[in-house]
Amino acid sequence: MTKSSEQHGNGLPVLILLGPPGAGKGTQAKKLEERFGLVQLSTGDLLRDAVARGTEAGKAAKDVMEAGGLVGDDIVIQIVADRLEAQHCAQGVILDGFPRTTAQARALDDILSQKGTGVDAAISLEVDDAAMIERISGRYTCAGCGEGYHQSFKTPERDGVCDKCGGTEFKHRADDNAETVRSRLEAYHADTAPLIEFYDAKGALHRVDAMQSIAGVERSLTDLVAPITGVAVA
Ligand code: AMP
Fold first, then answer.
1. pTM of whole model > 0.85?
2. Which among 47, 94, 184 is the best mutation to test ligand 1's pocket, defined by most ligand atoms within 8 Å of the CB?
3. How far apart are CA 175 and CA 167, in angstroms?
4. Which sequence positions are flagged as catalytic?
5. SS in 3 state form for 114-171?
6. For the chain, what is the mean pLDDT?
7. Whose CA is nearest to atom 6 of ligand 1?
8. Under 8 Å CB-to-CB from 145, ≥6 apart: which residues?
9. Whose CA is nearest to atom 15 of ligand 1?
10. Is 90 exceeded by the pLDDT of residue 3?
11. How far is the CA of 44 from the centre of ligand 1 (A)?
């Protein structure tokens, strides 16, 4: 279900960030979270957490994630349904990395429609494959606070010290290697790219040029999201 413009403001704003690995979904979701008070819901982060904690879902997901494939719809849909029930999502959510298949998109519609709401906007971050590979291979995060960095595009102001929390340990995702990235791109083109058409047909699709700088993409997204949330931006 897609909300009509008259329905905006009723129920929690629900935004989807669509785009291939490396398009900047996680980076931009965090910025939208800070600016608009929305909650980022990243299925990749939730699955990595489930793997680290050794839960049943984590055990089922581990090998698939390492190979760059897609984790089963049932597992991912359950994780998202549980999260959307959580109190802290009441201000609205940015879905980052979900849905990734048409079955997930339909399940999301069902979950939201039971809450009397729907998707406000599905935002496609558009980049080309070559740029994604460069972005993914250079990225790393602070082990303490999760702030994202990139060897070429965003290094800490003081070498080896996180700008945000002062931490000095950084980590690189195990699936950010050339071979796995290729599989993740294939999964994107085969299973996730069709969602662009799915949301376009519902009138909910917005396209953003994600080849711009991080700040440029942030400006485009802010202009798009401000009217949806009703938050005035200076
Ligand atoms: P991400 O952090 O979004 O790049 O996701 C990392 C990995 O988690 C993906 O390569 C998939 O193996 C898995 N994953 C994350 N979200 C989903 C989803 N919605 N459906 C299936 N698998 C997912």
1. yes
2. 47
3. 23
4. 25, 100, 139, 173, 184
5. HCCCCECEEEEEECCHHHHHHHHHCEEEECCCCCEEECCCECCCECCECCCCCCCCEE
6. 90
7. 44
8. 162, 164, 165, 167
9. 44
10. no
11. 5
